[in-house]
Structure formats: C-alpha cells, structure tokens
Amino acid sequence: MKNKKIPVLAGTVLLSAILCSCTNIFDKGSNDIKVFTGYFAVSGDEVDENNDIKELIAKKTGARCDEIWKNENKSVDDTIDDMIISRRYPDFIYGGIGQQKLLDADALIPLNEYWDEYENIKNYFTADQWKKLEDENGYIHYIPVYSNNYMHNTDTEHNDEAFWIQVKVLEWAGYPQINTLNQYFKLIEDYLKENPVNEEGEKYIGYEILTDDYLFFCMENPPQFLDGYPNDGGCIVDPDTLTALDYNTTPTAQKWFSKLNEEYQKGIIDPEFSFMTSNQYYEKIKSGLVLGMADQHWNFEAAEDELPADSQYVPLDLVISEEIVPHYKSADSFDMSQGLGISVDCEDVESALKFIDDLLSPEIMTLRFWGVEGQDYIKDESGKFYRNDAQRSRSFSADYQKEHFCSYQGFPFYGGMNLDGINAYCPENQPDEYLSTLGGPMKRCLEAYGVNTVSELLNADSENPPWFPMWTYTNTFKADTDYGRAKQSMDSVKHRYLPKVIMSSDFDAAWDEYMDAYKLCDTGSYFNELTSEVRRRCGK
C-alpha cells in the first residue's frame, strides 16, 4: 500500500458526465449505509466498488463516500465552474486551487455552526489554527487536509519539490556529489553518451519538463530553489526587509532558462515537452526512459511506483553555485488556502460531519493507513506494528490495493505518528518497514551517501519564518482585484513565452521578448500586496 501526503494519480472519473442531468452518481444511497458523494480537486487512488476496507469502514461508521477525483483532461477551474453554473454539488468538495470560487459562490456550509458534537473534528486543529480559517463573519467553511502531523513528522521520502535523477545514473557515476545545476546536467549528458538507449533499444530522455496547466511550476519556479529560497510560491522574501521579490527576473532565472535552452539544443530535453499533457508526462515517467526532471514528488509518485528498482528517483537539492545553502525541505506548514468542505446540496450535514469525525478516530485511522490487523499487519506485545513477507508482498499488488485498501485520502487525517503514539501513521514511514521495502539499487545509494532514508539526502529543514508559505495567500487571489488580475497575466505570459525561450535558436532575443511581455503585467500591485501580507503575518 502506498500512502501519500498529497494524493497522486491512479484513475479518474469524468466530472462533466457526472454533472449531466442524465446521471444518478450524486444520488444518495437508499440502504442502511449512508452514501455520500465527493469531488476532490487532486489526483487520487481509485478503489473497487466493493473495496474491503471501504465496506468495513461503512459497517463501523454507517456511511461511505463515493470519491470522484480530478479529471486529468480537464482543469480544476473548469470543473468547479461547471458545478457553480449548474448549481449542482456533491456532498463533499475539496476545491484545491478552485477553493476560492466555491466560497464566492456560497457553495459550502459554515462547518462550525454544526460541529459542537464532533470532538475529533474540533480537536483536529488548535483554537489558533481554526481562528485563521474563519471568514469575516467568523465562519469556517473547510478543513485543511494535509496540514496535520501527530507528534512529529515521520517522512522517510521527500514528498515535495526537488531535482530528480534515476538511481541507476548515480550508481553508474559512482555516487558523486551533485550540488549545482551544471553538475546535474553534466551527469545526465555523460550518462547518455555511454547509455543512449535502454536494453530494448528505446532512446532515453535526459530531462523532462511538465508545462501543463498549474503544474507548469516544474518549469517556472526552480530559480527560487537554485538561489537557496524555500518554496513560498509566487515570490521569494527578503528576510531582512520583509519584502516580496520576483524570482522570475533574477539573474538566476535567466541562467536557469539559458541552461534549459542549451540542453534543449543538445537534444537532452524532450522535444515534445511544450505540448505534452500531464497524462502523457506520467506515461513517460512510467516508461522508465526519463532520467531526470524537476517536480513535486507527490505529483509523479504514482507513476514512479510502476518503475523497476533501478529506475526509481533520487532527490537532489541543487543550487546555482556552491556557496548557496539549499532550502528544498521545509518544516510542516499550515495550508489555510484549501480543504474539505460540505456543500449546500448535502441533505444530511450532521451525518456528513459524523463521517469526518469517525474517520479521525484511532480505530478508523489505523484501518485507513495500515489495514486490518492480522491480515495486513501484526502487532507485537509492545504495540508495535510490523508485516511479514506475505503481507508486504500483497501490499505492493496493484490489484490488492484497489480491492482491499481504502485510505480516504481526500479526507482529514493525521500524518506523522499513529494516534497510539507508538507507530508511524503508515507502513512506509515505519523505519523497519521502510528499510525492508527498499530495492537493492536504492539501498546501495543510501549506503553510499551515508544516510538511512531518502529524505536525509537533502539539507535539513529549519523553522519556518512567520510568513511561510506565501502560496497559501496567492491561492486565494481573485480576478476582481488588481493583484489577482496581475497574477493571471503573469501566469499567462509565462505559459506562452517560456517554452519558446527554451526552444529558441536565439536565446537572448527570446528572453528579451519574454521580459518585454512580462513587464507589461502589473507586477507592482502583485508584489506590493504580497509584501503587505508578509509584514501582516510578521506583526508589522
């Protein structure tokens, strides 16, 4: 079983068909089990209709949810727009980047008007954290899902953004220290010179770039990391002046795109990158032909799960020059910008809240992420969970995952430790289980670099500054403000021009054309607004 902090692709349902008047998928169940429906604006794990643990949770809680995940062929914004126009909503909605639209459309009920009887929900965050989620009227309309670790973080993998390289490339090179962008691309170039194709004669792709929809961050945001800044999203922040700065126009940004242009001209970068959909990107990852890319691990992890052991990816925290300290890992942050809400179309709000509350109980949390005791794991006399070889083997079967495991990954959960305080919340984060499931190539890699987990390969995280992360603010921007319109213009210009910059036979001319177009955006109102928010969060 693979559990992720951020859901990943395993299957999708066409929401446009669901919203059509001829379908009954949003109809409520008529038997003793209350059947809810939910749309989640993220990619998620599709399970069988009669999934074992979903059925077991239904028997214990009296409810189940039929989950509908983001359609990879349709943007979240368009999907949310369709709901709002038709005024037909599922019972539960995780709005993702479309959360603000749902709030503006009054599509979500005020949860704190109903939750007095549901202690697991009320105790999920502190009073101060809940306060941050209140609107101007004191109402809370959604619950952040991926912002709560019990006791402490137990991640063994790096779930966030990094530069990635297949482990076999590092093994071939003798496990070198790769710190800078130039060292990274030289490694890829050197490997391709001696290994241009795989054993089947298929040509390797040295470096891949995802530019589809909001996932174009894979192309546009590396300059912030290369300069040693954390992932604030949409800006970098000067800690001395508390000023939001533009990473799109820094000298490092120009160096980054100049390097991509150079590698494109050399044939290292996939020539199809500029018109590739996210689904096509995942398929290329699954093929094992992509040696490297920059991406968030949660975005491609499901595709990576299908790769052989020697084609798994290792994260690298690259910088533009050796003297810069990398900052790819950040301490846990509180994402106030999105979460799970209950829609105004839900006919039984109390039962919906009870379902969320039950999913947060210790027994159901263990079912969601470890499975059934005796069948999926064993508990020793001290309360520690472990798995035998047969249980581990079953957990890796895609068929068994679909028919048996159900994590309800779009609903609130506790990461970090299990609520028993003894075990990690999932097997992948339990140290003994983690080590037992690593393939030989990854074990050799970790040993060569002197670490115990993949997460330890990156520079250690530090305490987050008060403003971090700023993307929790930019995600709320609307087009009826100057800064919201500026953000849309900036994104549109980057979508249009940056692929051209990478592919151009005259980089300098293409870069100048891009900068001319970018300067026409009202960037001043955007960064002034972010600076005000940085200082507000710092109490200035």
Tell me the layout of helices and strands.
Elements: H1 15-18, E1 34-40, H2 52-61, E2 63-69, H3 76-86, E3 92-94, H4 99-104, H5 119-122, H6 127-132, E4 149-150, E5 161-166, H7 167-172, H8 181-194, E6 205-208, H9 217-220, H10 222-226, E7 236-238, E8 243-245, H11 251-265, H12 278-287, E9 290-296, H13 297-304, E10 313-316, E11 340-342, H14 349-359, H15 362-369, E12 378-379, E13 385-386, H16 389-395, H17 398-404, E14 415-416, H18 431-437, H19 440-449, H20 471-474, H21 482-503, H22 507-519, H23 523-537
Parallel strand pairs: 1-2, 1-3, 4-14, 6-9
Antiparallel strand pairs: 3-11, 5-9, 5-10, 7-8, 12-13
Helix pairs in contact: 11-21, 12-13, 21-22, 21-23
Describe the overall structure.
With 540 residues, the protein is an alpha/beta fold. The chain contains 23 helices and 14 strands. The strands form 5 sheets. A 4-stranded mixed beta sheet has the order 2-1-3-11. Strand 7 and strand 8 form a beta hairpin. The two termini are 46 Å apart. The N terminus is likely disordered.
